[in-house]
Amino acid sequence: MEQDVDTGAIALFALRYCMGRMTYEPSLTIDWVQKHWHCFSDGAKQNIRRDVLEFVSSGRSLGMDCDEETWRSFEAWLSAD
Q1: How many angstroms separate the CA atoms of 73 and 7, rounded?
Q2: What is the model's pLDDT at position 2?
Q3: Is there a contact between 2 and 45 (Cβ–Cβ < 8 Å)?
Q4: Cα dist. 5→9, 21, 36, 46, 65 in Å?
Q5: Residue 20 carries which DSSP code?
Q6: Position 1 pLDDT exceeds 60
Q7: Residue 44: exposure state from Cβ atoms within 10 A (0-12, 13-18, ≥19)
Q8: What mean pLDDT is reported for the chain?
Q9: Cα separation of 50 and 55, whole Å?
Q10: How confident is the model at residue 4 (pLDDT cuts 50, 70, 90)?
Q11: Which sequence spans correspond to the domains of the chain?
Q12: Which are the contacts of 8, defined by CB distance < 8 A and separation ≥ 6?
């Protein structure tokens, strides 16, 4: 995939949509974002990190146990990058 400024923005919008949902969507979206992480601009990566870290630490429901595990794992992955 070629680097495309809009791709990172679309990924951010998709992640925001998934926040708090209790379906397969968070897992599917997070897997896609991780696979295409190298395609995003630094600004998009920074925005994704910020939004995910804020969501996970907000005290809001992260969903069911499997959803919470998915978000916390993604948060750790983002922090390690």
Answers
A1: 22
A2: 53
A3: no
A4: 7, 26, 13, 13, 33
A5: T
A6: no
A7: buried
A8: 92
A9: 9
A10: very low
A11: 6-80
A12: 39, 40, 41, 43, 44, 45, 47, 48
Kind and range of the H or E run holding 18: helix 5-18
The pLDDT of 34-49, averaged and rounded, is 95
- Grouping H, G, I as helix, E, B as strand and the rest as coil, residue 23 is coil
First to last CA, the chain: 20
pTM value?
0.88
Neighbours of 22 (CB within 10 A): 12
pLDDT for 77 equals 97
Residue type, 80: A
Pair 71, 55: CB distance under 8 Å: yes
**Residue 36: which H helix or E strand, with range?**
helix 25-36
pLDDT at residue 44 tops 60: yes
